Amino acid sequence: MSDQAAVRVGHFSPDAPNVDVRVNGEIAFEDLAFEQVTDYAELPAGSHDVSVAPHGSEDAVLEVTLDIEADSSYSAFATGEVGEETLQCSVFADEPGNIDSDQTHARLIHASPDAPAVNVQVADGGPVLCEDIGFRETSGYVPVDAGSYDLEVVPAGGDDPALSLPDTELPAGAAISAIAVGTLADDSLGAKFAEDASWFVGSLVVHSSALHFFIPVCIPDLPVVSAKERWAVVSSHAVSSHLTCKWTFARFPRDDSGIYRKTPDTPASVIEFGPLGALALGHFWQRVEQQTARDGANRDVV
Fold first, then answer.
1. Which of 62, 94, 126 lies at the terminal end of a domain, its last residue?
2. How many folded domains does the chain comprise?
3. Could you tell me if 283 and 217 lie in one domain?
4. What is the SS3 assignment for the chain?
5. pLDDT tens, position by position, 201-246
6. Vertex 288 angle, CA 71 and 259, to 5°
7. CB within 8 A of 96, min separation 6: which ones?
8. Does 232 share its domain with 256?
9. Are 74 and 37 found together in one domain?
10. Radius of gyration for the chain, computed over Cα atoms and rounded to the nearest angstrom
11. Parent domain of 165
């Protein structure tokens, strides 16, 4: 178990300027614009003092205490309006559960201050995915088949869409938040899509003529640098000790820093890495091949 949590921040106050976010007095996120969502950042579990101020200023417009638990992920969003004195921090736990490789776990987060409670449904009489979601509420994650959908956001109890979202892509094996943003008053109602931290399970098996058993290893849902470092330690241990090793690891959205993901059209044994991750994977397999050549072991990935 880790003593860390993963937290990201989003700016969804339509009349607030770009902001800086301080955690325990230090700038953690800088010059955050409306509708922007940061990457996840690692914080120790416990209580943290968080303040939000206009970019370049130290005069906070929002101050909260954020309580977070170890091995958990959170989205902390600024919602409401400065002019209406309704600005708040809305915190959502990112807990999509285990996601099948052909499904998406999707949720709605309602962050439009003047929009009524809404339903989300597939257009043209399709099924209702979630209903009666009010401001600052979330639907929770709904498992759906991955693919492209024409979606509608409809006021609860009504028929006419307040927002149409044609050709919405829900990628396989992912957790997605659709965040209702903007206001009805100025016709700026829209949706921001963000991929959430999520989990899936993979296993590495190294067979040899030595002992055959597995060590369960859990890499918690943390930013990728920590996860990769821990993964490297686990891999090395599995090879050098001739053990069958199985681990659970965090899955994060891809970026250029080497974040890894499983793709829907690859076998369960194949994990695709980003640029830095590919280097680590190549180095690891080289060590496996060297080791197996020395002791005649057979290596499988399942």
1. 94
2. 3
3. yes
4. CCCEEEEEEEEECCCCCCEEEEECCEEEEEEECCCCECCCEEEECEEEEEEEEECCCCCCCEEEEEEECCCCEEEEEEECCCCCCCCEEEEEECCCCECCCCEEEEEEEECCCCCCCEEEEECCCCCEEEEEECCCCECCCEEEECEEEEEEEEECCCCCCCEEEEEEEECCCEEEEEEEECCCCCCCCEEEEEECCEEEEEEEEECCCCCCCEEEEECCCCCHHHHHHHHHHHHHHHHHCCCEEEEEEEECCCCCCCCCECCCCCCCCCCECCHHHHHHHHHHHHHHHHHHHHHCCCEEEC
5. 333 333 333 332 222 333 333 333 233 333 333 333 333 333 333 3
6. 35
7. 105, 107, 141, 175, 196, 198, 199
8. yes
9. yes
10. 22
11. 95-196
Rounded Cα distance, 105 and 86, in Å: 30
Same domain, yes or no, for 113 and 190? yes
Q: Identify whether residues 46 and 124 lie together within a single domain.
A: no
**Residues 207, 181 contacting (CB under 8 angstroms):** no
Tokens of 278: 């590919």
**Measured distance CA(30)–CA(16) in Å, rounded:** 14
Kindly report, residue by residue over 103-131, the tens digit of the pLDDT.
Answer: 999 999 999 999 999 999 999 989 999 99
